[in-house]
Amino acid sequence: MRIVLGVSGGIAAYKACSLLRRFTESGHDVTVVPTAASLNFVGEATWAALSGRPAQHEVFEQVHEVPHVRLGQSADLVVVAPATADVLAKAAHGMADDLLTNTLLTARCPVVLAPAMHTEMWLHPATQANVATLRERGVHVMDPASGRLTGADSGPGRLAEPDEIAAYALAAVGDQARPGATGDLSGCHVLISAGGTREALDPVRYLGNRSSGKQGYALAADAAARGARVTLVSTTERPAPPGVEVVTVESALELRDAMLARAAGADAVVMAAAVADFRPAERATSKIKKTHDPADPDAAPTIELVRNPDILVELVQQRGPASAPVIVGFAAETGDEHGDLLSYAREKLERKGCDLLVANEVGEGVTFGQDISTVHLLRRGSEDVRTVGPADKSAVAAAVWDAVVAMRAAP
Ligand code: C5P
């Protein structure tokens, strides 16, 4: 795919280096078009070295090749990261005073803008109106992430993570291709769960886990890019990949209801969520107070837990003898003195009854919230194991869908 990566003048320009690497490592041809201001943050030599071709930013260079028209016309995808308030304003008003803004006007492919700016600038009615105009015209404007900004301040305005932008952009291309899609999941409806459940103790507290939801979102983005209709049942607030329907839930019981209600019509179901095995037996209706016994002020409450249902097992039971949907489970595993990771994974695959188990190697600091993981794909009724990684979560997602496509072709 021919990608134009526009970079405008914000401190987050350095993150575009990682985004560029993700695109080139996936085999795409990337031309970087930095604005003049952005070259104060990352210089031309960096872009040339990372993309393997000169960065382009002059309308009046190589005029005989008409670069301001050619770049946009020949691109399959244009991504601007970071997109400053200034670039959003120029794009919304059709201004064209440099190569990047010219390219935005000539592009007829999906255009993805990943904003980054201070919170006040993002929330300003002028910026919000520009974003609304662009979205109305079909431009994919991501929501910025929230968090620490350049100074001491924090709020919405941080550039989304390079992985997220790459997945979103990929899905934007798939989204455009969906009517009459040619991907190997076209015509399929896939249902994916993502994130860690939150089991409420009272109106302000919950028991949770460290799952980031990244794997589930990578699965959703890749399935959408391959032409599937995607429903993502998620516990997180991450921006949805384009074209993906998101159902937001919190607890294991909510996740279970959402999944069971939608699984019957699906072609594939992937349980990537980290579902809590236990929940508090009771949810207090008001905040649990520090002291409830004046005679014993240091007393702490005892919280009784009950088991949550195993949603994966219930999905398999609900399907019964039918061949669809293909059901995929995840398992975070380590070996120990009684067995290795693969034998535990095989035992879990049999016990849960799903068709494919993706066994994640976990350990101290590994997998949860990380971008890189190593997984083993085990298929029911087969001794073969496919190992993927260490690889990023989009590569794991691609391997999972490859396996699902193969299983649908030869059940
Ligand atoms: O048993 P374990 O938690 O290791 O199984 C992991 C797999 O089972 C994951 O696919 C997870 O989404 C699913 N699961 C579930 N319901 C639970 C616990 C886990 O569906 N209560």
Automatic annotation (TrEMBL):
Question: For the DNA/pantothenate metabolism flavoprotein C-terminal domain, which residue ranges apply?
Answer: 185-406
The pathway to which it is assigned is:
Cofactor biosynthesis; coenzyme A biosynthesis; CoA from (R)-pantothenate: step 3/5; Cofactor biosynthesis; coenzyme A biosynthesis; CoA from (R)-pantothenate: step 2/5
Q: Where is this region: Phosphopantothenoylcysteine decarboxylase?
A: 1-189
Report residue spans for region: Phosphopantothenate--cysteine ligase. 190-411
Give the Enzyme Commission number.
Answer: 4.1.1.36, 6.3.2.5
SUPFAM superfamilies, per database record: CoaB-like, Homo-oligomeric flavin-containing Cys decarboxylases, HFCD
Which GO cellular component term is one of those annotated?
Answer: phosphopantothenoylcysteine decarboxylase complex
Q: How is the cofactor bound?
A: Binds 1 FMN per subunit.
Q: Tell me the domain of life.
A: Bacteria
Q: Which UniProt keywords apply?
A: Decarboxylase, Flavoprotein, FMN, Ligase, Lyase, Magnesium, Metal-binding, Multifunctional enzyme
Catalysed conversion reaction: N-[(R)-4-phosphopantothenoyl]-L-cysteine + H(+) = (R)-4'-phosphopantetheine + CO2; (R)-4'-phosphopantothenate + L-cysteine + CTP = N-[(R)-4-phosphopantothenoyl]-L-cysteine + CMP + diphosphate + H(+)
Query: Which residues bind CTP per the record?
Result: D277, K287, P309, D310, I311, L312, F330, K348, K352
Q: Where is the Flavoprotein domain?
A: 1-169
A biological process from GO: coenzyme A biosynthetic process
Q: Please list the GO terms describing molecular function.
A: FMN binding; metal ion binding; phosphopantothenate--cysteine ligase activity; phosphopantothenoylcysteine decarboxylase activity
Q: Which InterPro entries match?
A: CoaB-like_sf, CoaBC, DNA/pantothenate-metab_flavo_C, Flavin_trans-like, Flavoprotein
Q: Does the keyword Lyase apply?
A: yes
Q: Look up the record and name the cofactor or cofactors this protein needs.
A: Mg(2+); FMN
Q: Which PANTHER family match?
A: HOMO-OLIGOMERIC FLAVIN CONTAINING CYS DECARBOXYLASE FAMILY, PHOSPHOPANTOTHENOYLCYSTEINE DECARBOXYLASE
Which family does this protein fall into?
Answer: In the N-terminal section; belongs to the HFCD (homo-oligomeric flavin containing Cys decarboxylase) superfamily. In the C-terminal section; belongs to the PPC synthetase family.
Main role?
A: Catalyzes two steps in the biosynthesis of coenzyme A. In the first step cysteine is conjugated to 4'-phosphopantothenate to form 4-phosphopantothenoylcysteine, in the latter compound is decarboxylated to form 4'-phosphopantotheine. Catalyzes two sequential steps in the biosynthesis of coenzyme A. In the first step cysteine is conjugated to 4'-phosphopantothenate to form 4-phosphopantothenoylcysteine. In the second step the latter compound is decarboxylated to form 4'-phosphopantotheine.
Q: What protein name does the entry list?
A: Coenzyme A biosynthesis bifunctional protein CoaBC
